[in-house]
């Protein structure tokens, strides 16, 4: 940068400065003294006059400008980085199968698994069993989340509710859901009810624990502010407590979604005639490891998709919640 030229009237002795690298647009702002809104500071018989002007040079090109292409490239790179681990794992698996390190009767090669999956898709068997599993998981998850959230709100808002609910919930939470299989068969038989019951039992606890902790962890100053604003008991619950408990609820929902698929894997093997678990049990009888792996992959993809869906809903419901992003 170099300064040249005589002082101008606007710059009042400061000199005109120009940048030789590239032309820049300038803004000139003038300030008067005394300010017009303070007439008591004016000299007698006078009016405020500009005594000077400040010339500010701002590179307009750099203001609010975002390189869209670089952002899009970064997003594509982040998505590709997620696939690095699975691709390397599958490649090592295929190499081990091709070299004989992994026997075919122990674990089918990835190429064989892909072929088996394609055959199941062509015959429609995979879609048929998948719809049955989705229905069971959705029904059990909906009931479990509803029960867990309701009990958490009652125990979180009322001291008597906590005394009556929290203790039994903590005791039942320590019991594995799969340990209830014999008792559940006695209660519900071997039909659809036992499978849905196990999913309900397993998914209610993560929702209860996280929602209850979120309600109890709210800042008491919010409640005091609500009382100052005269919101009332119902307004306090609706506008302060429930919105504040939503982050904890969604955390529990993510755990419950993953647990529902874990429990469904086993519950669908209890005298079932349909579902992905039944498909895997049937393949086990014929030592079809490729079909078993197809079922495991389907369960894994269902867990991934459902978790992404919950996170998407969380982002829409809680747009104000800022989260840390790794760099």
From TrEMBL:
Transmembrane intervals = 82-102, 137-158, 170-190, 196-215, 236-266, 286-306
Give the record's keywords alphabetically. Answer: Cell membrane, Membrane, Transmembrane, Transmembrane helix, Transport
Signal peptide interval: none
**Among its keywords, does the record have Cell membrane?**
yes
Q: Where in the cell is it found?
A: Cell membrane
An example Gene Ontology cellular component term from the record? plasma membrane
Entry protein name: ABC transporter permease
Record organism = Glycomyces paridis
């Amino acid at each position: 940068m170099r300064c040249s030229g005589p002082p101008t009237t606007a710059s009042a002795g400061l000199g005109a400065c120009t940048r030789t690298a590239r032309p820049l647009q300038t803004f000139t702002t003038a300030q008067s003294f005394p300010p017009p809104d303070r007439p008591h500071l004016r000299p007698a018989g006078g009016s405020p006059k500009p005594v000077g002007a400040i010339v500010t040079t701002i590179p307009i090109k750099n203001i609010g400008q975002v390189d869209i292409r670089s952002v899009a490239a970064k997003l594509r790179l982040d998505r590709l980085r997620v696939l690095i681990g699975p691709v390397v794992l599958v490649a090592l698996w295929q190499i081990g199968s091709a070299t004989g390190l992994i026997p075919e009767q122990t674990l089918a090669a990835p190429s064989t698994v892909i072929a088996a999956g394609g055959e199941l898709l062509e015959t429609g068997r995979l879609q048929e069993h998948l719809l049955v599993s989705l229905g069971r998981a959705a029904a059990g998850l909906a009931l479990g989340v509803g029960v867990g959230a309701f009990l958490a709100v009652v125990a979180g808002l009322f001291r008597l509710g906590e005394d009556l609910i929290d203790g039994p919930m903590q005791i039942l939470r320590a019991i594995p859901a799969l340990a209830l299989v014999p008792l559940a068969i006695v209660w519900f038989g071997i039909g659809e009810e036992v499978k849905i019951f196990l999913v309900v039992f397993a998914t209610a606890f993560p929702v209860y624990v996280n929602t209850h902790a979120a309600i109890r962890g709210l800042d008491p100053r919010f409640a005091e502010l609500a009382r100052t604003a005269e919101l009332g008991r119902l307004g306090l619950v609706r506008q302060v407590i429930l919105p504040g408990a939503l982050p904890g609820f969604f955390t529990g929902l993510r755990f419950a979604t993953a647990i529902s698929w874990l429990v469904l894997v086993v519950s669908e093997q209890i005298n079932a005639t349909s579902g992905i678990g039944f498909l895997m049990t049937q393949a086990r009888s014929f030592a079809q490891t490729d079909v078993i792996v197809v079922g495991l992959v389907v369960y894994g993809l269902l867990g991934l998709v459902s978790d992404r869906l919950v996170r998407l809903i969380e982002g829409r419901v809680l747009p104000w919640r800022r989260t840390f992003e790794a760099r």
